[in-house]
Amino acid sequence: MRILHVISSVAPRFGGPSKAVLEICRELAKRGQQTEIYTTNIDVDRRLQVPLERPVEVDGVRITYFPVEAFNLYKLSRPLARALAASIPDFDIVHIHSLYQFPATIAAYYCRRYGVPYIVRPHGTLDPFLYRRHRIRKWVYETLWERRNLAAAAAVHFTAEEEMELAGSLRLRFRGVVVPLGVGLEEPPLATRRLSDFWPETAEKKTLLFLGRINFKKGLDILARAFGAIARNRPDIHLLLAGPDNEGFGSYVRRWLKEEGVLHKATFAGMLTGERKAVALARSAIFVLPSYTENFGIAVVEAMAAGLPVVLSNRVNIWREIDRSRAGLIVEPRMRPTADAINLLLDNPATAVQMGARGAKLAREQFSWDAASANLIDLYRQVVSQSFASATGPMTVPDTLSPKVARTPVSQGSTGLKPHVFRES
User: Fold this and answer.
1) Are 343 and 264 contained in the same domain?
2) What range does the domain containing 132 cover?
3) Is the dihedral of CA 282, 268, 301, 351 positive or negative?
4) In this structure, what CATH number is given to the domain that contains residue 281?
5) DSSP conformation letters of 243-260
6) Do 113 and 244 fall within a single domain?
7) Does residue 200 register a pLDDT over 50?
8) Average pLDDT over residues 361-366
9) Residues 75, 79, 83, 86, CA torsion sign
10) 164 with 297, same domain?
11) Which site from 15, 36, 104, 223 is most exposed, i.e. has the minimal number of CB atoms within 10 Å?
C-alpha cells in the first residue's frame, strides 16, 4: 500500500504526537509499506532548518516539509495544499493527524474530492477537557469543516478505549476504532551513569520523575502541591522535571514549588534525549503523571518499559490497561491522592519493584510496535478494501483478520456507529 501521513509538525519539541508519527511510519516502512509524511517546517516559535518541498528519507520514510506562511497556530501553507491536491490521488489511504489546523483540514478536503479514504487521529482534541477550551472558535471551525471531516472519515483512530468513550459523549458523527500506539522498546543507550553525574543535587536521593511537555494539561499544579506535602517531611527525595517548556508554563510550576517551600528540591532538566533520558528512566524511583487529560501517554509506556513504578491520574487514557495489570497506582487528579500514592511506593520498595516488573511486562506485551503496526496495517487494508462512502453505516470487520487481533464492539454513545477495538490477544 501507498500510505500518506499528514501532520502539522514533526518537530521534537511538540512532544508525543510528533514522535508517534515518526515511529508509526518507520515501523510501517519496515513492514514493506510505502509510507510518506507531508508536514510543515514549524517548530513552536521558529522554523525547522530542513529542505523544503522536496522529500528527504529518514529510516525508510519519505518526509516532505512545506513552509508555513502565516498564522502559526493554524499552520497555513499553500505549498502544502498544492502538493496534496497533486499527490493524494496517488495514495491508497491517508492518515490525518489532529484537528482544527490547516494541514488536517485541507488533506481531508482533497481526500473527499478525489475519493481517497482517510483516517483521522484526533490526538486528544475530542477529550471533553480540551474540547471545551476555546469553544466559540472551535464551534465555528466545526460548523465550517470539522464535523464534515469527521463524519466522512473511513475511521477515527483512537489510541485507547477511554479516549473513544470520552469522544462518544460529544454527540459527533464518526466511525471510531481503537488501535493503541507502540513504543520503541529496543535496547536504550546503556545507562551506566548515575543521575548525580548529570544532576548532582539528586545524589543519595529517591528521585520522582516527570517526563513530558511542561504544559497546563499535565497536572503540574497537582504534582507541585503533592511533592511539597511529601518533601517537607522527607529529606531523601528530589523531583526531576524533564521536558520542553514551549509556552513558558514552567514559571508557574516554579512559583507553586516556591510557595510549597520545595523549589530547591526540584530540577528542571529540559528536554532529554539519548543517554540523559536513558539514565533518568533507569535511575529514578517513581514516574508521576497526574494529567488532567492525556490521550495515550508515550512517556508512561517508556517509564514502564524501563521498570519504573508509575503513579497516574485516571485521565491518562491508558489507565484502565495499567490498572488491570496492576502496573501502576491510579488516582484522581487531585493533590492528596497523588501524594498518598507516591508515599505508598516510597514506603514500600518491594511493592514498587514488583509493580515496575509488571509494568515492563505490560509494555512488552501490549504496547510494542510489533503489535501496533500489525493492527494498523490490518486497519488500512480493511479501509482500502471496503467502501466508506458515508459514515452512516457500521464499520464491518472481515473474519480474515490475523489471529493476533481481537475484535470487541464498544459503545459509542448516541452516534449509532459500531466502532471496534483492535488489541493484541
Assistant:
1) yes
2) 2-178
3) positive
4) 3.40.50.2000
5) S--TTSTHHHHHHHHHHT
6) no
7) yes
8) 88
9) positive
10) no
11) 15
CB atoms under 10 Å from CB of 336, counted, come to 13
* 8 Å CB contact between 419 and 395: yes
Both 174 and 255 in a single domain? no
Query: CA-CA distance, 172 to 127, in Å (whole number)?
Result: 12
| Cell 516554579, residue located | 254
Mean pLDDT of 208-228: 95
All three cell numbers of 247: 509556552
- pLDDT for the residue 14: 77
Number of independent structural domains in the chain? 2
Which pLDDT band holds residue 367 (cuts at 50, 70, 90)?
confident
Residue 4: beta bridge partners? 36, 94
Q: Which residue has the cell 495514495?
A: 91
Residues 6+ apart with CB under 8 A from 237: 205, 206, 207, 208, 227, 230, 231, 265, 285, 346
- The dihedral sign for the CA sequence 242, 247, 249, 251: positive
Three-state DSSP class for 129? helix
Question: What is the enclosing helix (H) or strand (E) of 280?
Answer: helix 274-283
CB 280 within 8 A of CB 269: yes
**Cα gap 356→361, rounded to integer Å:** 9
